[in-house]
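Working notes for the structural subgroup meeting. M.R. asked for a predicted model of this chain before we commit to crystallization trials. I am recording the input and output together here so anyone reviewing the notebook later can reproduce the run.

Input as submitted:
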Amino acid sequence: MKKQALSLCLSCALALSMASPAYALRYTSTSGAKPTSNASTAVKPSSSGSLSFSQIGARVEANNLNIKSAKEGLESAKAMDWNAAIRDMEDAMDELELAAAMLTSSSASSVAAAQAALDKAIAGIDLSADISKNIKEISAAIAGVSTAQTMAAYGKAQAESLKANLESMEDQLDDLKQQKKDYVKTLEDTSRQIENAIDQTVSGAESLYLSILTAQLQRESLADTLEGTKRTVEEMELRYDRGQISQLTLTQVQNGLTTLESSLESLDNSIFTMKSSLQSLLGDSTNGVLTLTDQPSVSPDQITAISYSSDLVLAKKNSYTLYAAARSVETKEKEMNDARSDEGKNSYQYKMAQHAHEAAVIQEQAAAASFELSFQNLYRAIAPAQTALEVKEAALRYEQHNYAAAELKHQQGNLSQNALLEAKATLDSAQRDVTAAQLDLFTAYHSYQQAVQLGLTGN
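Returned structure, recorded in token form:
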């Protein structure tokens, strides 16, 4: 039963982790404490097909089928009552011990009773009576003693057999208690593994959300470029009619328009695919119809509150990778100690186990070094993202002034409508650049927080 329950848990966790890409971003909390899910407050799928970034975690955990299966597998394993199994074996041992004692006592009583009957028969010999009668009574008493002794020997053998079984059960009870300890630890390992897989799944959904937002910005930019190109084509067609440009020039511009239209269609297909994938992670129908209702952002105060040293300590504590590496060291150390105890310190089994333990220690050190490097890279990515946002914001302010000047010139009749539209397109592009930079900054910050709170560094 133990192996079946653990196998179910591990299979669920494995299937879940394989189905979930290790993308970034899960929680927006900056408290440093790892968030916990609450099924009673889980957000159900919206009939309107809309989704905000803050809803992702609850909806994935409540509705994703892989996650639900993994959780049920874990609950199945937790239902194993080792205390009841131990009590049942202890009760069986008590019954055996009582049965052995009763056999021993009964055998001794039978022999004592037979011996008493013989003593009585001997004491009651009447020399004046018929000698054959005395012999008959004594013979019967002797036979009784012999039978009682035979039964006592059989009872003693049975009692010894029960005692041997009792000793075997005592060993089994010790094994059962050790299995309970091992099971509890394995259950903890499985729980951490499933929790990590859930985090990965939620992170994948959040990454898709942000990727869709980025793709939608790209679509807006491409659509603006397409509109500008259409105006250019109209202008070129007019100039061609007037004989100002060649057929080749007109064809090149028209081909550019066709290429843009094809790119826009391809981008729409990509957005549809990403939305369908996100819906799948959410446990919704994958119709590709989904409205993202907000763009997450990060405030300057949140960035200022970052404390690298303390965050690194917490990140290591929350890392499943480092937890698994430490557990491997524990396992190899136990195997090494068992080999020394069972086979001796000069045995090849002990030497093999000793090297395996040392390899696990080195691997744990390598995992810690790799984790720290990845964490440092996540931290160092935030400042450049801040700088890029500031540059884009400055460019936006510049384009706002340019557009205001263009509007004034247009009102005065000194600027054409097409030129004004181009200025507006440039302004809109600058605004999208700012929005994209805000997304980049949020992604960098949230990836860092994900490492702190969940121990996920993307590696």
